[in-house]
Amino acid sequence: MNMNKQTVWLVTMLTLMVVLSAYYIVTGPVEPAGPAAVNDDEGLDAKVKTEEKEQPAESGKKEKEEDQTTSKEAESDYFVGYQLQRNSLRSKMTEEYMQILTDPEASEKQLSEARAKIDELMKVDKSESVMEDLIREEGFRDAVVITNENNFVDVIVQSEKMSNEQVVKLVSMVKQHMDVPAQHVSVAYRD
Question: Which ranges are annotated Basic and acidic residues under compositional bias (predicted)?
Answer without folding.
Answer: 47-75
